[in-house]
């Protein structure tokens, strides 16, 4: 991530604007004065920079706050370059001229928020790796939107280059958690969901993509006759997923071993060369949905802010705060303050797919109370955590 190091970091008086960037305020962490957040706005982007004193290295760092990062990376990098120019001495930095990739945002890379109102028939691949199968899906189904979800950045960069070269208008890429993505989709719009060669995590089952909840969400999102497909070289993983699938209603199954496919991924080619068996499990949704059932949203998508009554720092002495419920949690990690503006560092939602956000609480006319950057992804767990947070903040 972009950053620079200095013996001490000097900031100009805020707010100020330079080169189209607005540096709004510096909020200092209440229980650690060596840490602070700087709110930056540029066009439609909004993010925090983090200033921190590093005692062990006897220097200070100014860097992008990871949980508010925006795309393209060059936007954050240029904000740091502006503040870097105010320093008398710089130890080191990685703020040289932006590469084309850091300046341009691919139109094929979409955020989760893009899909909150999505209702088109689609095909989904989770963990697409090299992207060969996903590209084949898009080329073979030009009448459908194809969505690829991946957390490995090099894989995403590689396929975005291929999508642009092939000019595939029907292929979108997401960098994020597939479990969250499925939960925000409306019901019965996917023709197929593909999971090819996922990490088996045979000793850490909680890290697997396949779980009872994942299968149930997939079946909800699948249209009549839609298919959830697992392809794996790991027999233990295959058998475990099969056992989970057999617990579901309104499905039919197909099982294959070493079945040839139209496209071979680099992983499959590697396993085949090693003479490993390849297992296919296809789960078909057999329940017939009516038109009235289609495109029903699984969650609300608005986060409401009631009147917040805590108007001075004394009312926030109970933070950090932690609440753990059966199917959701809320952790208020830290509190930052900039005059009449408070910033809560939060982690909340589902235990297996938590979200990290900053909530800005303002008691001045020109700054609103809201989540910084954009709202959390409105999963059921996130909505429950938000409602509990509002109960805390509206208490006398």
Features of the shown structure:
396 residues, single chain, alpha+beta, 22% helix, 9 helices, Rossmann fold, 20 strands
Structure notes:
By secondary structure, the chain is of the alpha+beta class. The chain folds into three domains: 3-103; 109-293, Rossmann fold (3-Layer(aba) Sandwich), CATH 3.40.50; 313-393. Helix content is 22%, strand content 32%. It is built from nine helices and 20 strands. Strands 1, 2, 3, 4, 5, 6, 7, 16, 17, 18, 19 and 20 form a twelve-stranded antiparallel β-sheet that branches. Strand 10 (145-150), helix 4 (153-166) and strand 11 form a beta-alpha-beta unit. The model has no long low-confidence stretch (mean pLDDT 89).
CATH architecture of the largest domain: 3-Layer(aba) Sandwich
Which ranges are low-confidence, i.e. pLDDT below 50, for 5 or more consecutive residues?
A: none
Biggest sheet overview: 12 strands, antiparallel
Summing up helix and strand content along with how strands pair, one would put the structural category as alpha+beta
Strand composition percent: 25-35%
Task: Spell out the CATH superfamily of the largest domain.
Answer: Vaccinia Virus protein VP39
List how many beta strands DSSP finds. 20
Number of domains: 3
Number of helices: 9
Shape: globular
* Oligomeric state of this protein: single chain
